[in-house]
Write a structure and sequence with these properties.
The complex is a heterodimer of chains A (309) and B (437). By secondary structure, chain A is mainly alpha-helical. Chain A contains 13 helices and no strands. Chain A has a single domain, classed as MetI-like fold (Orthogonal Bundle), CATH 1.10.3720.10. The longest helix of chain A is centred in the first third of the chain and has 33 residues. The radius of gyration of chain A is 23 Å and the shape is globular. In chain B, strands 1, 2, 3, 4, 5, 6, 7, 8 and 9 form a 9-stranded mixed β-sheet that branches. Classes of the chains: A mainly alpha (309), B alpha/beta (437).
């Protein structure tokens, strides 16, 4: 669930002649030398297994032995399974909330750190630390905080409603997952935003302040439009990562209390050990389609805002 | 325990241009792919002449390592290596299972048994020495034709672990009836001691303890689930068998027991439970022998005993929860039948098998086996001898049904009836796609 930093996006090809035009009719053969191995590996370890998996989602296969062809029966069972539907509801809502929280905080931090303040570099380093920690480790540490430290703190401060750990509360447990996921992914987004902010020419701010624009006006009319491409990248990568949420939940709630925080990825993974391979392959196929649709929708909606992925 | 999320292919990264023809491009790609796949295949076949032994139980890998060295020195020319795969499924998906396996006799293994993946071991001399009532346990989950697919190696018995010092100080008897059990819980609570420590965070502890113990002595689990499979998609309030009907009284018991849990049970984990019990803060703990070693790490001198949970008013109804902790199998696909059988026979020798079970707080599975001497488990020996035991109801429920999570919710709300209706609904759904085993 790491958010990758799209380094390439930081350098807009300003005034450069597009590669295609320069070599019209005479493509560089060497380009294929680089592309083919990647394509082969991608096909061998992603595309082929995915196609095989999609095929088995139409069968009763458990991973070995005999199987029979079921057609769309697994899919029909899927859409009437309340546990599965609940997991979709939870996962989509979680991804939406987390992406908003994480992007807002990351952008605020990036703007603050881009100002001339003391220890900006040191602070930036501190904020990036969560990114290098493994998700499951972070989740277990936070689960200790939520289960023991926070209730103990609440008791000593006399805040009675907070004495019960939110991990045991089906209505609030999901907040713990939002907090930890956001905490873990903010650094990646922060780095992207920092790169975006440094690409804005400082004279724009000087000119606007001469015209009398305040800090908020500058942010809305200069900063935000010029880094909109970075916002889109962060949002798409963020949503994609949050949709696959797994390790943080395993460490924090195990999908509980009850089934309140069971994500789609957890159901899918359960199919491999639970003998429900084909059924969960169908689930994975549906989930894949939904993820692709969401990504395409995000691209379409934001098209024309100088976005190049 | 992470799943790598698949990267979504974005951008115009891979698109063949005009000068290289599409055909030659595809041919080149296919060639490279064939090479890559051939490379994969070459690495995994063969195995260098060593016999592969797969052991599921991580804690005893070193123990078995010593046994394998002994086997090698007694059988010159045979080399045995541990197959270090963590999961059983990939071995079978690849079609290359280890030559001898030693696995928990559970529903997961039953899927392989039921599909005829294991050789018939009934011809081995040691098969005749396995207790009939214990090999019957292994057959409760699945069978294939009339094969002996598994040789039970180690039987674990579980009950209520209790603090003998606390019981002695308060003058409490080991309860033999449900009423006595509730009295003991009340007395402990009145004395300011947590009667039963529960660890809801690790949901397996809920079904393993609370659920299984509440059901086991009231319902014949093997018979119940055999009938549930027969009824299949018709399971429900009007069916002759259902969770809602048959488990109603047991879940009444579970609800009462949950009332005696530690107040913070919802956020406590298995490790917390072992720590609390080890510190002597707890009267009773619904756990199996696997927790005893962890408790001893906290306090080696703690006086611990085990009894079977009474859930009726007749002491004779009490039974112990058991499971075949380890069972041996030889997969159909092994190329080394003779050597594999020799290794199985070596491991099944009375001195090897009895020593393993003595050292690992378990019970031998063969006739004329010596009793388990450890006093922490002495309370269950009689049940094992009399075969007054059951396999937990939770172990018959496929992991596709998140039973532990349902229990979490039921304990919190006190509404076990909804949980039972949910279980029936889930069972019907699984039966529709033949996934009940």
């Amino acid at each position: 669930m790491t958010v990758q930093t799209p380094l390439g996006a930081a350098a807009p090809p300003e005034g450069a002649v597009p590669a295609r035009a320069r070599h019209r009719g005479r493509p560089e053969a060497i380009a294929y030398l680089f592309l083919v191995p990647a394509l082969v590996v991608f096909t061998a370890i992603i595309v082929i297994p995915a196609v095989v998996g999609i095929f088995y989602s139409l069968t009763s296969y458990v991973g070995f032995g005999d199987w029979e062809f079921l057609g769309l029966r697994n899919y029909a069972a899927l859409v009437t399974d309340p546990t599965i539907l609940e997991s979709y509801g939870f996962t989509l809502l979680f991804a939406l909330v987390t992406v908003v929280v994480a992007q807002t905080v990351a952008l605020a931090l990036a703007v603050a750190l881009s100002r001339r303040i003391r220890f900006a570099t040191g602070l930036r380093t501190v904020f990036v630390i969560p990114m290098v920690l493994s998700g499951i480790v972070v989740a277990y540490v936070f689960s200790f905080l939520f289960a023991n430290t926070l209730p103990a703190l609440a008791t000593s401060l006399g805040a009675t409603p907070l004495e019960q750990s939110i991990l045991g509360n089906p209505d609030l447990a999901w907040l713990s997952i939002v907090v930890v996921s956001a905490w873990q992914t903010i650094p990646g987004a922060l780095l992207v935003y920092t790169a975006g902010l440094t690409s804005i020419p400082p004279d724009l701010y000087e000119a606007s302040s001469l015209d009398g624009a305040g800090a908020w006006r500058q942010f809305r009319s200069i900063t935000l439009p010029l880094i909109s491409g970075f916002v889109v990248i962060n949002t798409i990568l963020g949503v994609k990562g949050y949709l696959g949420v797994y390790d943080v939940i395993v460490g924090l709630t195990g999908g509980g209390p009850g089934t309140a925080t069971r994500s789609v990825a957890m159901s899918i993974f359960g199919g491999f050990t639970g003998g429900d391979y084909a059924y969960q392959m169908a689930n994975a196929t549906v989930f894949f389609v939904i993820t692709v649709v969401i990504s395409i929708a995000q691209l379409v909606v934001t098209r024309g805002r100088s976005v190049r992925l | 325990m992470t799943i790598e999320s698949k990267e979504t292919p974005v951008g115009p990264a891979a698109r063949p241009g005009p000068s290289v023809s599409r055909r030659s491009f595809l041919a080149g790609s296919a060639g490279a792919l064939a090479l890559a796949l051939a490379g994969c295949g070459a690495g995994t076949s063969g195995g260098g002449g060593a016999l592969r032994f797969y052991l599921q139980k991580q804690e005893v890998i070193a123990y078995f390592g010593d046994l394998l060295r002994r086997f090698e020195s007694e059988n010159r020319g045979i080399r045995v290596v541990h197959d270090s795969t963590t999961a059983i499924a990939p071995q079978f998906v690849r079609g290359e299972p280890a030559d001898v396996g030693c696995f928990n006799g559970n529903l997961e293994l039953a899927r392989y048994v039921g599909r005829g993946q294991f050789r018939d071991l009934s011809g081995l001399p040691s098969a005749a020495r396995v207790r009939g009532d214990i090999s019957a346990l292994a057959d409760q989950y699945a069978t294939y034709e009339d094969r002996t697919s598994l040789l039970p190696y180690s039987l674990a018995a579980a009950g209520v672990i209790y603090n003998r010092r606390i019981f002695a100080d308060l003058g409490l008897p080991v309860p033999e009836t449900w009423t006595q059990f509730v009295d003991v819980c009340t007395a402990l609570r009145d004395a300011g001691i947590t009667p039963v420590y529960a660890t809801d965070r690790d949901t397996w502890t809920l079904w393993q303890g609370l659920f299984d113990y509440s059901v086991g002595s009231l319902v014949d689990t093997a018979d119940f689930f055999a009938r549930m499979k027969e009824v299949g998609t018709d399971v429900g309030p009007d069916a002759p068998v259902s969770f809602e009907r048959d488990f109603a009284v047991p879940m009444e018991r579970a609800r009462t027991i949950a009332g005696f849990f530690n107040p913070d049970h919802a956020v406590r984990s298995y490790a917390d439970g072992n720590l609390a019990f080890g510190r002597g803060e707890v009267g009773m703990y619904l756990q199996g022998p696997w927790a005893l070693g962890q408790i001893a790490l906290v306090d080696e001198t703690l006086e611990v005993g085990t009894f079977a949970l009474p859930v009726s008013e007749d002491p004779a109804d009490r039974q112990a929860r058991v499971n075949v902790d380890l069972a041996l199998y030889i997969p159909e696909r092994t190329g080394r039948v003779d050597d594999a059988e020799r290794l199985v026979e070596f491991l099944m020798q009375p001195e090897v098998l009895d020593a393993y079970n003595r050292d690992n707080l378990a019970y031998s599975t063969t006739t004329d086996a010596p009793p388990q001497q450890d006093e922490r488990l002495a309370g269950l020996q009689d049940y094992v001898d009399r075969a007054a035991f059951y396999q937990g109801a939770g172990t018959f429920i496929p992991t596709s049904i998140p039973l532990g999570n349902y229990l979490q919710a039921a304990i919190r709300t006190g509404d076990f009836d909804s949980m039972l209706r949910q279980l029936d609904a889930d069972w019907r759904r699984l039966a529709t796609r033949d996934a009940t085993a």
